[in-house]
């Protein structure tokens, strides 16, 4: 059960529309390392996680990623408000506009639609947590790339916040992986699936 609060996790107040920037930011909605994939990854993985505290962490972070997706969509929405016909053409937003007007739709910056194959839920806690660590680093790198090319301070502030949260999530998943490894009664924890091969578990 989720409780929804009618506020963003970090304020988004963009004064100057810029459809070109929107086409970059939207990758963190539906791109390969975006917030939609992150939330679905963690909320799917939690069911097969054999350790309650790690399952709880996946639920918490997966829920927060939904809030981050909401922030990204708010940024895209505000960047595409009240566009002129000229802005649509000159800023390269016309191809997106033809299909979606200014609605938020999950896609990468390169125009590739969201695909569930961009995330995994393997039912192996070592595999899943390793994927989660990589996912947070890839998202952080994408935010770094956005920060290099976007100049509007109204956009940069929430993007910096989101980047910082990726770092925190990476740290939490690192702690979770260490905790799982310490619970396993086997020196080479990469050689088996601890969720299935119970004989190796402490």
UniProtKB/TrEMBL annotation:
Gene3D superfamilies in UniProt: 1.20.1260.10
Keyword terms: Calcium, Manganese, Metal-binding
Chain sites annotated for binding Ca(2+): 60
Needed cofactors: Mn(2+); Ca(2+)
Lineage: superkingdom: Bacteria
Gene Ontology molecular functions: metal ion binding
Protein name, entry field: Manganese catalase family protein
């Amino acid at each position: 059960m989720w409780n929804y609060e009618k506020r963003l996790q970090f304020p988004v107040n963009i004064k100057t529309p810029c459809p070109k920037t929107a086409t970059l930011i939207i990758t963190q909605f539906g791109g390969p390392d975006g917030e939609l994939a992150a939330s679905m990854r963690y909320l799917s993985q939690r069911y097969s996680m054999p350790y309650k505290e790690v399952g709880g962490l996946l639920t918490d972070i997966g829920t927060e990623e939904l809030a981050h997706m909401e922030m990204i969509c708010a940024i895209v929405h505000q960047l595409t408000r009240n566009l002129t016909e000229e802005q649509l053409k000159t800023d390269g937003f016309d191809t997106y506009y033809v299909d979606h007007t200014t609605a938020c739709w999950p896609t990468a910056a390169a125009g590739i639609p969201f695909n569930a194959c961009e995330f995994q839920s393997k039912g192996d806690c070592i595999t899943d947590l390793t994927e989660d660590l990589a996912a947070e680093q890839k998202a952080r790198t994408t935010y770094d790339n956005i920060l290099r090319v976007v100049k509007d301070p109204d956009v940069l502030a929430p993007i910096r916040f989101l980047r910082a949260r990726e770092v925190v999530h990476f740290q939490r998943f690192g702690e979770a992986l260490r905790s799982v490894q310490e619970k396993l009664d086997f020196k080479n924890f990469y050689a088996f699936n601890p969720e299935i091969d119970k004989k190796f578990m402490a």
